[in-house]
Amino acid sequence: MQTAVPSSLDADMLPQPYLLFLGDTVEPSYAKTAFGLRDWARDRCVGEFACDTAQVTTGLPFLSPAQAQQAGARAMVIGVANPGGRIPAAWIPLLIQALESGLDLIGGMHMRLSGIEPLRNAARALGRRLIDVRDPPPHIPVASGAKRTGNRLLTVGTDCALGKKYTALALTRAFRARGIDADFRATGQTGILIAGAGIPMDAVVADFAAGAAETLSPDADAAHWDVIEGQGSLSHPAYAGVSLALLHGSQPDVIVVCHEYGRDRVLGYPHYPLPSIEDTIALALTLGARTNPAIRCAGISVNTAGLDHDTAQRVLAATAERLGLPVADPIRGGDAFTALVDACLARGVR
Amino acid sequence: MQTAVPSSLDADMLPQPYLLFLGDTVEPSYAKTAFGLRDWARDRCVGEFACDTAQVTTGLPFLSPAQAQQAGARAMVIGVANPGGRIPAAWIPLLIQALESGLDLIGGMHMRLSGIEPLRNAARALGRRLIDVRDPPPHIPVASGAKRTGNRLLTVGTDCALGKKYTALALTRAFRARGIDADFRATGQTGILIAGAGIPMDAVVADFAAGAAETLSPDADAAHWDVIEGQGSLSHPAYAGVSLALLHGSQPDVIVVCHEYGRDRVLGYPHYPLPSIEDTIALALTLGARTNPAIRCAGISVNTAGLDHDTAQRVLAATAERLGLPVADPIRGGDAFTALVDACLARGVR
C-alpha cells in the first residue's frame, strides 16, 4: 500500500480526475484547497462531496463518491483544512464511502490519512491508496545562505488564506504569456496538487525550513523566474516563523504583498489586529534584506472578492494612490494587473 | 528496546552519570553540549571520550568506555553537534564500543541514534538503550497567541552557540538565590539533559513551533518567572524562523540579548556579518511586541571567555556605557551581573 508520495512527483502521478471533499466546513476561508483546484485545475475536478452540515460549496456538481466514480473520478481530495490540520470523526464514514466506491484518498493535512486506523484498514481491504501530499521530501539540508542565480518573486501576506497562492499562479501565467521562462513553486498542499511538485513548508522540521525554501528554487538561468507561493504572515502569532524561514530561504528579488480588502483581524485570532499593508512591506523588506539586499516590493495584490466591480476598481485605485505602487486584484486582471506584472519584471528598480 | 523518551521526563529517568563523547570535533563552538554538562551537571559527568582526531576537550579525565563504566558511568552522551546534526561514519565504532562496555547511548542530534542500523543492531544484541532526547512530545498545539499569567524572560542571541543557555541557567540560579520561584525552560538538547525536561524547539514541525513555545512556559503564579533558553538568532540565514517562533510563543516580558565579544561573522556563515547588539535589540523588541506589547530589554550578556579579567571588565563597562543598559558576563558574575539581575526583575520599567 502506498501511503505517501514524494513531493517532487509529477502531477500525473496523482490519480485524477478528482472529487473534492468539503467536510463539515462552514467557513469558506478554510476551503482554499477546493477553491484552488476548481480555479486552477478545473478540467481535473468532476464535482464536490460534503457532510450534510457543510455550508461551503465550490459550485461544482454535488456527486456521491459512486456517482463521481461513474463520472470518471479516480480519487477524492480533502479540499478543506481546519486549524491544526485535524480530521474530525464525522468525516471518517464519508472517507470510507469514497474508498468503497473505488476512489483513492488524497490528503494534505497535518493528521495523516495513513495514521487513522479505520481508513488504513479500509484501504488495505479494498486495495485503495491513502496519499498524503504533505510529507516533505527526505534529506532537506540546512540553509546555506549562499546567493543563487536566476530571479525570484515571493508573495507575502498580511495574513493566511487571502490570495498568496492565487497571486503567484496568476503572475506565473502572466509571465509565461509574455514569453518568460517561469515556474510556479508550490509551498502548500493545494499548490502541490495543482503544480504536481513542491515542498509543504509548514510540515518541515523548523531547523530545515529555510533550507527547504532554498531547495525549492534552485540555481537557474539568468532570465528565469521562480514565482514562489507565500505562507502565513510575518505578523502571525502562530506561523510567523514559517514565513520568515520561507522569506530568508527564497531570497526574493521581488515581493508582492497580498491582502484581503476589509480584513482587519487575523483569521481565527480575533484579538490580533491585522498589520497594515505599509507595515507588512516594511517588515518584509527589512527581514528579507538579510539574505538578498536587493529585495524590493513591486506592488500589492488585493483580494476584492467581496466587492462589486466598480467598488473594487475604486479601492484598487485609491490603494495604489496611497502607496505609490501598482495595486491589482489578479482575479479581476485588467490594466491594474498589467501594471503590477510590469513592475515585477522591471529591471534596475530598487 | 527504548528508542525515545518523552521530553517531559524527569532528569533521573536518564541513565547517569555520563561519559561525554566529543567525536572528531576540532571547533569548540560545536561542543556546547559537552561544555554545558560539565559546567551545569559536573557531578553527573565522570569523564570524556573522543576520536583520535578530536582537538576539543572539556578538561575532564579522558576515559575509555570500559574505564568509564568501571568509574560508575551508565551512559555515553554525544556531546557535540555538527551543522545539520549528522553522525559521521567515523564515530560508529566508538559508539558501538560504548554499548559493548555496558553504557547506554544518549543523543540529541537530528540524525537519530535509532535510525543507524549498526547501532540499532548492537543495542538490541547487547540489551542496551538508544535514547534520543531531541524527539519533541506528541500533540503540540498550534499557537493560540493568548496572553499567559506569570513572568517570562527569553535570552536572545546575535548568533548561535555564544551563551544563551548559560545566561538563562545563570539567571535562573540568581533568581532562585533571591528567593524567587523560577524555572529554567530548556529548548535544546543540552538544556534538556541538564534540566531533565523541555522541548527541542528546532526539531518541532514548523507550523507548531510557536505552539511548542507556548506549551513550554504555561500559565503560572503572578510572582513566578520562567527563564527560557533562546535558540538561533533572528538574523540567522538558516535558523531565524525558529528564533521568531520561540519569541512569539514565549511572549517574554523581558529579553536579555546575548553576544560573544569579538565575533563579527555568523558561525559557519563567513559571508554573513553579525548584526550589532543595537540592531538585535531593536529587531527583537519590534517582533516580540506582536505577542507581548510590554516586552523590554533588561540588558546584555557578553561572552568574554576569550579575554583576560581586566580586558573583560573594560569591555563590559564600555558596552554598558555605549548602550545605556546593564552588561555582564554571567560566567564572571560580579557587580555587573548583579545589576543585570536587578534590571531583569525591575517592575514598571518599560
From TrEMBL, chains A, B:
* Sequence ranges assigned to domain D-glutamate N-acetyltransferase-like C-terminal in this UniProt record: 142-334
* Superkingdom classification of source: Bacteria
Where's the D-glutamate N-acetyltransferase-like N-terminal domain?
45-136
What is the organism field in this record? Answer: Pseudoxanthomonas japonensis
Q: What is this protein called?
A: EBNA-1 nuclear protein
